[in-house]
Design a protein that fits this description.
Layout lengths: L1 H13 L9 H13 L5 E2 L5 E5 L8 E6 L4 E7 L5 E6 L11 E4 L7 E5 L23 E2 L5 H6 L7 E4 L4 E2 L4 E4 L2 H18 L7 E6 L8 H9 L3 E9 L19 E7 L7 E2 L3 H14 L4 E6 L5 H4 L7 E9 L7 E4 H16 L12
Parallel strand pairs: 3-12, 3-13, 13-17, 14-16
Antiparallel strand pairs: 1-2, 2-12, 4-5, 4-9, 6-7, 6-9, 7-8, 10-11, 11-18, 14-15, 14-17
């Protein structure tokens, strides 16, 4: 039952565009699914969707969250011939941009399809064949033919652009597409919310679907400042390292079960990351052992999540990143295994149930 719901939620979420700062359509879908499950939710000024489920007031409060937004582009300029120039938004892989189909997000039912133009191979010189075109140089063709027609279609400077929504169902329960990061996390968090409303006992839990993670990682910070949780659990992808191009980066396998991060650090100008709270590591390790569930481990430079900022709220928040293995991050063929996503949701629910009034929040021996 959970697997079927996860699959449908993930497909519906992946088919809903939501560039950073423009997550409203995703948020509306999330709130509708929460409402169907009997979970009341609200939206804050930033656009975060928040559902608070009361529990034992003596136990530490928990914020479990994942992000709704996706990376993409913003329209920068419309040329006289109707071709469109854009600025990159988030960690767009420029190697993955060429000849992709995109959606210019005008409004539901009014979105415009475009293509990132790619110079004809027959006319490409030897010095161009192996060159990656960068985001400031790409051009998007919507077929309109001139600037006036493009603008008449509703496209302006600042219009959000995302890779065209699609779902690629592979063998078994593997799903690929442009926004597995982090619509798979959203699907899992919906399942966690459904499980929390049916529980008896346990701590107060704030379920948060956050915004603008791909932009500046600080949308969730606003929710955390308001909620003041004692504990934060962040859900996102874990870099799968089971393909030849990633083999030296770790031991994270697609289909190998959920994972926890023991170390993350951006390492490219942003001096931030997460070294998880030891009590949280112990909680998830012991819970996985009790469930007889494999628990994979990650330690990566070049990875950063919004937990990096949430952990610094107030007196400090006992924090951990958990996730599902994913291949081909920040491309149009991001790939996850539903078995991993389902196991992660079950692990999180079981771990939260183990948080009582005596849970150790300080870092000391």
């Amino acid at each position: 039952m959970m697997r079927r719901r996860l699959r449908q939620d993930l497909i519906d979420l992946m088919m809903t565009p939501g560039l950073s700062g423009h997550e409203e359509r995703v948020a509306a879908l999330v709130r509708a699914r929460l409402s169907q499950a009997g979970v009341a939710s609200r939206v804050d000024r930033m656009g975060n969707v928040i559902a608070s489920l009361a529990g034992n007031p003596d136990a530490p409060s928990v914020m479990i969250f994942t992000h709704m937004d996706q990376l993409g582009f913003f329209v920068r300029r419309i040329e006289a011939d109707g071709l469109i120039r854009v600025e990159r938004m988030g960690g767009v892989s420029e190697r993955a941009m060429a000849a992709q189909v995109v959606t210019l997000c005008i409004g539901e039912g009014r979105d415009v399809t475009g293509i990132i133009i790619n110079k004809a191979h027959h006319a490409t010189g030897p010095d161009e064949k192996y060159k990656v075109v960068t985001a400031p140089d790409i051009l998007i063709d919507t077929g309109h033919g001139d600037k006036e027609a493009v603008e008449a279609a509703g496209i302006r400077i600042g219009t959000p652009v995302v890779y065209q929504s699609r779902v690629i169902e592979l063998a078994g329960d593997r799903i690929a597409g442009p926004s597995v990061d982090d619509r798979a996390g959203c699907a899992a968090l919906l399942e966690i919310a459904r499980g929390l409303i049916e529980r008896s006992g346990g701590p107060t839990v704030h379920v948060v679907f956050s915004v603008q993670e791909e932009f500046n990682l600080r949308g969730a910070l606003v929710a955390a400042q308001a909620l003041k949780p004692d504990i934060a659990i962040q859900i996102d992808l874990m870099l799968a390292t089971d393909t030849p191009d990633m083999a030296e980066r770790g031991e994270m396998k697609l289909g190998g079960g959920p994972g926890i991060s023991l170390y993350s650090f951006h390492g490219r100008g942003t001096l931030n990351g997460v070294i998880p709270h030891p009590s949280m590591v112990t909680l998830f390790e012991q819970t996985a052992e009790r469930l007889g569930m494999p628990l994979q481990r990650s330690a990566q430079v070049g990875v950063l999540t919004d937990l990096s900022y949430v952990q610094l709220v107030g007196e400090g928040v006992a924090s951990i990143d958990i996730g599902f293995p994913m291949r081909h991050s920040h491309s149009t063929v991001e790939c996850c295994d539903l078995a991993d996503v389902e196991a992660m949701a079950k692990l999180a629910l079981a771990a939260i149930s183990g948080i009582g009034a005596d849970f150790k929040l300080t870092r000391e021996i």
